[in-house]
Amino acid sequence: MPPMPAANRAQEPSTWQKLKMGAMMGGGVGLTIGFIFGSYSILRNGSGPRGLLATLSQYMLSSAATFSFFLAIGSVIRNDALLPPHIEAARLQLLPPLVRSKAEGAMLVRARWDAERARRTTA
Question: Transmembrane residues, as ranges (predicted)?
Answer without folding.
Answer: 21-43, 55-77
